[in-house]
């Protein structure tokens, strides 16, 4: 289960999980975001404090310990499958993308173990006289996962190994 790019992916995973956890620890225990929220950073960006006890976008909220353990088990299984994919990665972009996804999943899994929910705190929004739109609240682990998925989509659609339409000889 070790390929030529596995180390690169694991370094990215550890770094993304560490940055995610450091940001959460600082916001929770140094900045004390729960007591200050919301904190306006820009006209379109706030720091807020919310605990996600479900999966992405707050789906399948689980209040009891059994549900939280089931969600954690699903994450562990997903990371195991991603590790197999990482061991077989053939490009640096795939390895980095998988590392971001694994690190993001690990960062959120740590939250589930420590806090029984995932700490989310970044809120993008648009507020005008006629529009009031809030994007879902997320954290740096979620951003790493999205960046990793974007990298994989780019690789599959436009990368060197992407399926190409055969050119007709002219």
Itemize the secondary structure elements and their pairings:
Elements (H helix, E strand, L loop, with lengths): L5 H25 L2 H4 L2 E4 L2 E8 L12 H23 L4 H24 L2 E10 L4 E3 L5 H19 L12
Antiparallel strand pairs: 1-2, 2-3, 3-4
Helix pairs in contact: 1-4, 3-4, 4-5
Order of helices and strands: HHEEHHEEH
Q: Globular, elongated, flat, extended or rod-shaped: what is the shape?
A: globular
Radius of gyration: 19 Å
User: Uncertain segments of ≥5 residues (pLDDT<50)?
Assistant: none
What does this structure look like?
It is a single chain. This protein has 5 helices and 4 strands; from the N terminus they run ααββααββα. With 170 residues, the chain is α+β, with helices and mostly antiparallel strands. It has one domain. The protein has a 4-stranded antiparallel beta sheet. A hairpin with a 4-residue loop joins strand 3 (118-127) and strand 4. It is globular, with a radius of gyration of 19 Å. The protein starts with 5 loop residues before the first helix and ends in a 12-residue tail after the last helix.
């Amino acid at each position: 289960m070790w390929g030529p790019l596995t180390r690169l992916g694991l370094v990215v995973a550890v770094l993304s999980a560490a940055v995610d956890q450091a940001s959460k620890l600082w916001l929770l225990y140094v900045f004390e975001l729960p007591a200050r929220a919301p904190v306006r950073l820009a006209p379109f960006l706030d720091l807020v404090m919310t605990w996600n006890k479900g999966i992405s976008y707050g789906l399948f909220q689980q209040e009891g310990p059994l549900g939280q353990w089931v969600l954690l088990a699903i994450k562990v299984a997903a990371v195991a499958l991603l590790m197999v994919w990482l061991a077989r990665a053939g490009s640096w972009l795939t390895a980095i993308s998988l590392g971001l996804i694994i690190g993001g999943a690990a960062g959120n899994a740590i939250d589930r173990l420590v806090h029984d929910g995932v700490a989310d705190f970044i809120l993008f929004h648009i507020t005008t006289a006629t529009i009031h739109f809030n994007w879902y609240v997320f954290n740096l682990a979620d951003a790493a996962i999205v960046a990793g998925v974007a990298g994989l989509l780019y690789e599959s659609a436009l990368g060197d190994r992407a399926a190409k339409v055969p050119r007709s000889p002219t």
